[in-house]
Amino acid sequence: MSSIKIRLRGHELPKEVFQQEDKGLSYFEVSKTFSVANATRSDVPEQLLELKEEEILQLDFEDNSFWLGDSDSIRQIFSKELKRGATGEEIYLSGEIQTDEQDRSLVQKVAIKAAKVFVKNKLIRPGVGLLAQKAENSGLKFGDKSFEKYGPSVVLSVSESFDLAEADFSRIDPSKKCLLLIHGTGSSSIGSFGEMKGTEEWRKLVDAYGESNILALQHRTLTCSPLQNVLAALESLPSGLTLDLITHSRGGLVGDLLARFADHADGFDDEEMVVFEKNDREADLETIQKITQVLQRKTLKVDRIVRVACPANGTTLASKRLDMFLNVVINLLGVAVGGATNPVFLSMKELVLAAVETKDDVTVLPGLESMNPESPFIRVLNFRGTAKELDSKLIVIAGSSELSVTFKSLAVLAGKFFFRGKNDLVVDTASMEFGAKRKEGNVFLYLEETGKIDHITYFHTERVRKTIQTGLLGKLEEFSGQSRTDGITFLRSGQRGVLGVEGGRYVGTEVSGKRPILILLPGIMGSNLKDKRAKTDSDRLLWINYLRFLKGHLSLLKPSDQDGIEADSLIKTSYKNLGEYLSKTYDVVAFPFDWRLQMEGNAALLNLKIKELLAYNQPIKMVGHSMGGVLTRDFILYHPETYQKLNALPGFKILFLGSPLGGSYRIPYVLFGKDGIIKLLAKIDIRNSPKDLLSVFVNFPGILALLPINKSGKHDFSDRGFWEKLRKASGDDSWPIPTEKDLRHFGEYQKKILTQEKEINYDNIFYIAGQSRSKNSTISDLEIKDGRLVFYATHQGDESVTWESGIPKGILERNHFYYANVTHGGLSTEKKIFGAIEDILTQGQTARLQNSLPKARGDEKDFVAKEEEIFDLTEENTMNTLLGLGTDEDPIPHETPIHVKVSHGDLSYADYPVLAGHFEFDSILTTEKVIDRKLKGELSRLLSLGLYPGPVGTHQIVMSKDVSNSDKSFKGTVVVGMGVPGELTPYQLMVTVSKGISRYLTIRNVREPLEADSGKEPEELKPEDKEVMGISVIALANSFGGFSNESSIRSIILGIQDANRKIRTTYKGRVRVIEEIEIIELFHDRALGILRTVKNLEQDDSREFNISVPNLSLTKKVGRRSRIPFDNTADWWTRIKVTEETQTCGEKEIGKEILMAIATSGAKEKELPLKANIKNIETLLEQMTHRNLYEPEIAKLMFELLIPFGFKEDLKRQTNITWVLDKHTANLPWEMLQEDLNGLPLCIHSGMVRQLATMDFRRTVANVTERKALVVGDPDLKGFMPQLKGAEKEAGLVTDKLKGYGFETQSLIKSSPPDIILKLFTQNYKIIHLAGHGVFSREEGKPSGMVIGNGNFLTTSDIAQMSKVPEFVFVNCCYLGQMDGKAEEENQNRNRLAANIGTQLIEIGVKAVIVAGWAIDDAAAADFCEKFYECLLSGVAFGEATKSARKLIYERYKGRTNTWGAYQCYGDPFFKLEGLNSTVRQGQKFYLLEEVELELFNMIYALESKSISLEDARKTLEILEDAIKQSNLFSEKILEYQAEVYNKLGDYGQAIEYYQKLFNLEKAGFSLRAIEQYCNISCKFWVEEFFKDGKKQSKAIEAITQTIDRLESLKSIGATSERLSLLGSAYKRKLMVLKAADQEEFVSVLRKAANAYYEAARISSFKVAYPINNTVQLGKIIEIITNEKVVTEGKSKLNFARLIQDLEKHLDSKPKEKKDYWDIATEASIALSKVCLESKPKEKSWNELKEAFLKVWEKAGSPSDRKAELEHLEILITGLGMAKSETGKSLWQGLSDLRNSLS
């Protein structure tokens, strides 16, 4: 590999500093060293170094570990930072490394503190073997003896104080066992076991064995193999010893060999010896022979072995380059030997540097090669089919270090290079418990499960030492680990192993011909294959048969014409549970197939089976798992005729479970021996190497059919030349690849898919995608890079199939895919998704799975794949691995996203309980008021009882079912407290929503169903049994709270997510959480904006929002409205808080300071002090107010003095401002600010209101609901002060204005004090307007307030006594608005009353107040009042109304007055008067056609939703039509909407008049719907005319017949369900005008009506309720009258009960949008159908039917809708009047009574 450039930030260090610790190296030296800083440190210089091919880089980390690597390994470490350019490759060293794991909870970042470059200082150096021997000699010294003279091993004696000496076997006590310590790799006896010295556990071991009987095997772990170590040990040990062993690391391999040879002198059986021979292991064979010879003259027994952290089945660390293994070992050694300058450490470092330079693999050192998982030695040692089982007891101690913080850098690097699973930095935890096979019951396991141990700290850990002590000295049946009976098994919890393996056969059920049929197709390797050539039944099963795998029979799978192998059944483990679950609904046909063979042949067999099943004439469904889905797709392509017949069956559906429909890159990964499956099979079948096995598998045409399809033109796997390139890049030119013939066939197959797959219609086809576990991934791509074959992986797949390659485009486009957090094999075995599978098969959808795929970060999409080593060789794990069944451990952390939908309509029709918010001290207003009405005043009652939320975190839950007489279709509400108005932040909103939703969920406490709860398995629940847990929300705090819609929705969703997580954690997943959020909005433009917001949040890269928004359109609901869209930025009011704070020094008050804080977008708040002299401002204010003139200079000066410099620019940009003031800062003239002498005052170009920052609010506020007003103008002062003509005029103007808008107005002009006081306190008013003189006095005892007589004042004390609080008060009195903070503070200290009327009004709960701050101009005041009231009474919000009024008088009076600034407007800028039914006002002029159209459009839906009374509707329509004439506006839509409004009002004649005007237009632009409605209304009109005057019968019949003809002609354009329903309705109307005596004609028309409705139902696939109910009801009347069954065109009799049953099932499974009256009336209509079908309905049925209609009519429906229902009943009654049967007469009487009670 060529050199690489490295950029970093840091300083180059001088030689005398950086060479110090490496001076002892003989063959390498440091050339340069750099300190390394974080890349963001711009103050540190950038350095560039070029790492040449022969140079070695050392990276030093913050945890004092280091890594030595060449340019190749540096590229691998920093693969994400690697950039390729014209000048070569370059890496920018960011200053840290981090894990690659997807599980971000375990992400570790480690800082790099230095980079050091090594070069060779001598041309010739010893080889790696000699350097390894030198390192061993240095590390294995004992006492004062060098190890140079010793061979592979020497037995030492160990004293209690851990002194080592050559063993004197004469001192051994033969009556006791000996304890032999065997150390680990690169270590020594003291290095491995020295931590036990001095411990209580060591003393007990010494006492038990005796000091003379404790031995240690000091041995070479690098240059000698374990067999050589054992031979030397056996040659030293005396005969007759019984040994117990404690081994560490690689020492466990030596221990296993000792035990093996002790039990079996020949060591290995014949099959195992063949493996040594086939792999040219002459040295091993020779050593085995010598050991056998030694044991012919010696006896030895091994009793117990405590094996700690042994790489018993190899370790991934030893599977790669030697230098990588040694890098880890040397770091651990450095801790053991005590530092970088230790000679032992330096020797090892020299070895690591040499290994980096040579790039040797581990085979150069026999001691390390023995730990390679692919080593023949490891394969033989672990062979499960061996005849050499051991008698010795094995106590395994295993552990892992994923949570350790000691060697973070090693954990990160080992994760990058090696490990995928748990490990202790050197050995895979899964490998530790295998090794030589023991007899049943002889293995015990202790798994150190803290995750904080590493390879060198086991013996430092007390619990491990105690386990060692128990294992050697205790009773093994009481061992703290677990006893097992199945040989070696990797245990995590509980027992598992051979006895738990089910395997077996699944053949489905018999086909009865009476139930729907389901064809279940297995995945690759999911069919049992039987070998007919086998001699016995037990041997006949070839796949999957663990015992035959052990015997090497996998080679028999190679296909041939005479192989005698056939697919017999499905593998029970994978398909039994799913099959049995589905068999409750279906006859399950299991379709096994030989997955080795060509798909065309398998598709032909499937075609024959389907043809056979079609004969049963039953619905058929197909579920294809993995390859079974591919076979299903291929059947569609190869046999389109059969598929067309299948697809035409009612309810036909196909479901793919993780099928690789675009192929899978896992196939080439398998075929090049990289996949764990091949490695596992080669370890089980030791007769065949991976290469041998692949020479069989590569000849499976079925496997080749799963190769990636070349859709992009990137990789053509049908090209033999491409395979040759891959083979060369794999590094083995003899590697088996597919034959030319097989590839040619794959090319034809691939072409068929590429050309024909796009023609597949996916309307009835669905897909469930799985998910890999957190430590696993899915192979996604490959490339030849730098001449090497590189595979890439992703976390966006199920470990076999990526979502990209698996899911076809047609399924994605239809949104027919779902996501389950289970692995590839788990898609057919995981019971928790079985219910979802059945939902999809029956309904074509499910709410139990996520209807979207999780988003991935960029670094999770494609990365270099890490090969997997599988260590668990049990039959159970073999089965799971082959079938793709992941274990429960380490799933991808995943929360099912919350479904979010946005509904456009009235919240009265919300799907779920409505989440609402309430500010402290507020009354029940706006949204809460609507909810309160639905709950019959329950919220108001709770508020009056003090049980209502206010502060953030408080909440109240009210469910409709708990409130008597409430509308039970409205589910209820969750009200959350939002704190003090103006102070709510997004975070607080999130918190309060979280608490409220959490409490709601705990109250509901809907448990995830288990058998104990419901008597059903979870998967047995039908969709209708499973309630969707949802919450309906509106945007909270987006008016008074000052939040934008986006800010509000973000906080609400985050709060709900937080509640879900807390409930899941607290209740351990047993309580259901919110699954769907419905955001409901009345206005169309806002609803669309919210939909865009939630869609953006769904796509947000931060992943903060775990939501799914599957529907890209609004859900329509009753009561929806539209308006002219407006700029949402104008809707935003910025809160600016200005308060006076006391400054203190210690406890001493030193002064006052004014602080100003601006809240931006409801999110952040910044605060600055006001430095100006307030006294100067007050002087200027006094001058300006007394002169009552507008002086821009003073206004500009006010801006400069009152606004801190840091806020000036912010303030200029604000569209609207809310000043939040205390009683001190309210004295300042905020309305008078002007930032530019030539510009406008701020309150003219920006909206501006005030809010009072006080805690003295009345706690319980009783608001007035009546539309009453009080106007007091210029009271009779009897000469006390001059009378005010302006006040008198203003009062008269306001009185007229209020009366004009329907307010009952008490006008007191020139009235006496008694009259004013009497009227004020004896009645309740929504609006109070006061106009007259006002006085303010600072002196105690002198009154402040409105002057109402000679010495009479309306004071703050008077106002405070009001019980019922008005919503709005206007006080137009000079000086009245002035506040003196000190006077108020002193006054409150005595009686808690405010010092002026304006303050007191706010504190007693008035929602909005306007009060004058100084003397005002009379004319300007009158104009202000007129404009303000005109806006407010028309439904304009308070803030906009004040803005419009200010702007009017500013423009009208210019600089002649500053009255526009005198008005201080306190309250919520979004406040609107309650009870205003229309935004249309008398004399209103429209400027836009769209305004008129939308007013009419909204009236249509208001009438339908009953949100407007008939009286108000008619009055509003009258005003609106007058305004239309005045505005001279006209359009086709206006006429069409006018006609529809009159239709809703039941005025059919007027509606027809407007339709006729519409149709007579020269250039018509009306809709076809207008013609349809005209037809419908014409029939209704003539029925009314007939009932008014019976003489018009013939005219009515003629007109209705003409209408029927028109509808028939419309059918020629398109026979829609709507038009056919209207045709049926026209025939019904004709029935109403026919002569009752003419039964034959009546029945004839009745049949025509029923037939029209039936056709309408058929066209809508029997999924629309209206035509089905009419078909059933009219059809039943025909049957009763004629005593004949109603038949369809095909002459088959209609089953009315079945129609209703299927309709109810459909509505339960897929609720329809309730967008109009007829949707809401569906349940009542179904109830009527059921009553008609009963032979003799019971009284209960009639009562329930009546209640159903009354409930619907209470909730929705215009007069026209109600008329239509009664007319329908009249038709049924008329028909039944002709019946002669008792059933008909009974039904006639019941329907007659029902009609009378409803009329």
From TrEMBL:
Protein name: Lecithin:cholesterol acyltransferase
Record domain DUF7379: where: 179-262, 291-382
Any one GO biological process: lipid metabolic process
Domain of life: Bacteria
Sequence ranges of the TPR repeats: 1532-1565
Domain CHAT: 1196-1468
InterPro entries reported in the protein's UniProt record: AB_hydrolase_fold (IPR029058), CHAT_dom (IPR024983), DUF7379 (IPR055803), LACT/PDAT_acylTrfase (IPR003386), TPR-like_helical_dom_sf (IPR011990), TPR-S (IPR046880), TPR_rpt (IPR019734)
Transferase in keyword set: yes
Keyword terms: Acyltransferase, TPR repeat, Transferase
An annotated Gene Ontology molecular function: O-acyltransferase activity
